[in-house]
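Quick illustration, no need to memorize.
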Amino acid sequence: MKLLKVIALLFVPAVLLAATEKPNFVFLLVDDLGWGDFGCYGAEFYETPNIDKLASEGMLFRNGYAACTVCSPSRAAILSGCYPARLHLTDWIAGHKKPYAKLAVPDWTMKIDHGRVLLPEALKEAGYATAFLGKWHLMPNGQPDMEQHYPTSHGFDINVGGREWGQPKGPGKYFSPFGMPNLDDGKPGDFLTDKLTDAAIDYLDATDQQQPFLMYFAYYTLHGPIMAPAELVEKYKAKAQTFDNRKDEFLNPARAGMVEKLDDSVGRIMAKLDELGIADNTVVVLTGDNGGDNDKTTGGFRDFKGFSHEGGVREPFVVKWPGKTKAGSTCDVPVIGTDFYPTLLEMAGLPQRPDQHQDGISIVPLLTGKEARLERDQLFWHYPHYHRTKPYGATRHGDWKLIEFFEDGKLELYNLANDPAEATDLAAAHPEKAQELLRELKAWRSSVDAQMMTDNPDYNPKKTNSKKKKKKGSK
């Protein structure tokens, strides 16, 4: 019998053998994910046994970053391997309008250039099947070429749920009906995370075992509107009673229910990989696009989504690579969303494409334990827009972090090793270090052709400082 198997293998086409050697990829991207939302990152009120198990089977990064404090730029950075500043895609689509602010926002782009070879396109060229599920939010809503920027126009074979939306806007929001492409509405009461997971399970069931795949699942959760099935809301209302004196964790029963549904989804996907016998050849990545939507979800870091401080960009970052990454390992090296593209290429045994993923570097040496550090020791952010914070640029170089606010040139300097909560601004105490990092930040902006703000001729401080109304659907 063994001889027959050997003979049979001799007649398998070489391209097929090469395909079966490549790992599958399951990429799980969570919206508005705070650093402190999972048990493996310190959460106690939220319950995430499946996610915690995933972390225990792979590597957990303690200095993982999103490429922006809001969603669309971060998502573009993951798929392109480029900083948002290089792409000129620097805000959530379509961004806030501040016509009377002190500075004018540059003419930034709301789509990814088709001339770029994105991660799914690079994998597809190498024989991968590719599927997108969930939140896309990389389309120029209302513009003539909107239809040319669905996931299926950027390297994905199929698209389930992806459109211009940054949050569920169907008739039932997170509950049926959903109004999303290629996602059936199910029955009344069905929850969006469950239905997208059903589609993910169906996709896994239909995969050809001889062809590697990328399943890119970008959850709409935990973005608002915050809502969960009634039974979970009641469960966490009761649990919250035992946390009455706790002020360091967000005790929102509906959000806790959303987290549990997310955890259930991860558990179902992991179980399906086991059932299909492909878990040992499947890399699983779990991370977020920006910080949580309030300051109780960020594990003690300062501020949250939209802000320049760590709470806006420090993210859970977990990678399971069976047979390559030591189970239960942790890493303190700073890594960022742009790094996924070159990393997945190297995992697949494919050549790097530095002309495409221009700002990302492979973190395979960290994942395999061959190296304890990367050649790169500096990260950058660029946000020439108004949000919860005023426009800013930032850099982390080693343990030092500098923030430059564009309106007045104010600098903030922190040593993250001694002060991860960014409680003590050291710019006045260490002016030389602040100026050194500022020079590096400016040089980087020039190198990536970052768009800068200009003086606004319509600036009106009275209108700017008037009572602000919350923008509906802001990201």
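The chain has a mean pLDDT of 92.
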